[in-house]
Amino acid sequence: MGVTFSIATKAELCREANGRKCCALAECYGLLLYCNTFTPQEIKLITENRALVTRLPRLFRRAFGFPIGAPVRRPGRATKYVFSLTDEEKISRIFDAFGLTGDTLVALHINLAVLEEECCRASFLRGAFLAGGSVTDPAKRYHLELVTDHFNVSRQTYSLLLEMGFEPKESSRGGNFIVYFKQSSAIEDFLTLIGAPVAAMELMALKVEKDMRNTINRKVNCDTANVSKTVEAAMQQIQAIGIIERTTGLDALPQKLRETARLRLANPEMSLSELAAASGMTKSCLSHRMRKIIEISLTLK
């Protein structure tokens, strides 16, 4: 299986430096709230992304002073890596770092005190995307989503994005809660914010290419329609002239109409504009004469 746009985007995000400790902590916060399991008894994060496998231990060491541990490789159609932490003391230190104690363990939520700085909010969203996010190949359609099974977390992520100037949408699917974007410009801004400007630029380039292709197709369709109309009009005029020629003969026509009829017969492929230019007449004058010829042919039929 080739590298998808979503996997390539996450690989780019994993090249982002860990930076300040507060930002590493915020990124871990997003990862944990959007990972597979985050309870006082166990933390489990499953990923197919090898770049994230490399990043996670260093990120945890920067945030908490210890790595999450070596992943277990789970082979299959798509190889998955499972990070699991069951050491209650370490898990307790992680929960304490986010101020998650007492009632907050019943229903997880976002402690905004951890995300006071703009850089920390961007790091949090990067972690959420790495653990529970995906983005569709923009060559097909525009769609980016963040998925978690924690209702409060999803609602608060939605509110956080609103505060940051985004306009996300919400949904649910199979017991999970989703915050998503369908506008290409919003996806570009989101990817740039969380540290994937290359993916954002690729999306922009594909959008421009798609818009150009659509414009060209519309023009071709319009030109084709115009050609069809031109051919249809010319055939109608030639048929009318043929009727006159077979019944009364072209010499029975007034001189100006006779000249126009012979001009059309001599140039069956020309449009009315081209015919007018060749004869030195205006298009409206030539059009008027053609209408008279067609009217005469209808009386003869």
Give a short synopsis of this structure.
This protein has 301 residues and is α+β, with helices and mostly antiparallel strands. The protein has helices spanning 5-14, 21-33, 50-64, 88-97, 118-132, 151-163, 184-194, 197-247, 255-266, 272-279, 283-300; strands at residues 37-38, 43-47, 72-74, 80-85, 133-135, 144-148, 169-173, 176-181.
Word description of this protein:
- The protein has 301 residues and is α+β, with helices and mostly antiparallel strands.
- The chain has two domains: 5-195, Roll (Endonuclease I-creI), CATH 3.10.28.10; 226-300, no CATH class.
- The chain contains eleven helices and eight strands.
- The protein has helices at residues 5-14, 21-33, 50-64, 88-97, 118-132, 151-163, 184-194, 197-247, 255-266, 272-279, 283-300, and strands at residues 37-38, 43-47, 72-74, 80-85, 133-135, 144-148, 169-173, 176-181.
- The strands form two sheets. A four-stranded antiparallel sheet has the order 1-2-4-3. It has a four-stranded antiparallel sheet with strand order 5-6-8-7.
- Strand 7 (169-173) and strand 8 (176-181) form a beta hairpin.
- The protein is rod-shaped.
- The mean pLDDT is 86.
